[in-house]
Amino acid sequence: MRNPRQVVLRPLVTEKSTALKEDHNQVCFQVAMDANKVEIRQAVEAIFRVRVTGVRTQRVFGKVKRMGRFRGRQSSWKKAVVSLAPGQKIELFEGA
């Protein structure tokens, strides 16, 4: 059993995630690459004291970036869209 803070790395606050929060009561997080949906559900419920009804995940591949003539790649990461039960909310996203 991992520490929940090792599974959920940071919240994602973008235009798209804000629209998901307002329309569908869903919030987005950056999570550990090897975390599965069960671990993500347990971590969000433990950290924020809310009830989770669903978790969707996707891997976001790092972009290729250039610095002059040198090419590099940004790190790939994993994104989780967490659906909350009706009436539940996370205060962290409400102040944005």
What is the fold's blueprint, element by element?
Elements: H1 4-7, E1 8-11, H2 15-24, E2 26-31, H3 37-48, E3 52-60, E4 64-67, E5 70-73, E6 77-84, H4 91-94
Antiparallel strand pairs: 1-2, 2-6, 3-6, 4-5
Description:
The protein has one domain (4-86): Alpha-Beta Plaits. 31% of the residues lie in helices and 36% in strands. The protein contains 4 helices and 6 strands, in the order H-E-H-E-H-E-E-E-E-H. The strands form 2 sheets. A 4-stranded antiparallel beta sheet has the order 1-2-6-3. A two-stranded antiparallel ribbon has the order 4-5. Strand 4 (64-67) and strand 5 (70-73) form a beta hairpin. The longest helix has 12 residues, at 37-48.
Q: Supply the number of helical segments.
A: 4
Task: Please identify the oligomeric state.
Answer: single chain
Largest sheet: 4 strands, antiparallel
CATH level 1 class label: Alpha Beta
Poorly predicted regions = none
Helix content: 25-40%
The portion of residues forming beta strands comes to 35-45%
Mean pLDDT: 93
- The run of helices and strands is HEHEHEEEEH
**Tally of DSSP β-strands:** 6
Count of separate structural domains: 1
Identify the notable features of this structure and list them briefly.
alpha+beta, 4-stranded antiparallel sheet, two-stranded antiparallel sheet, single chain, 96 residues, globular
Question: Can you give me a brief rundown of this structure?
Answer:
With 96 residues, the chain is α+β, with helices and mostly antiparallel strands.
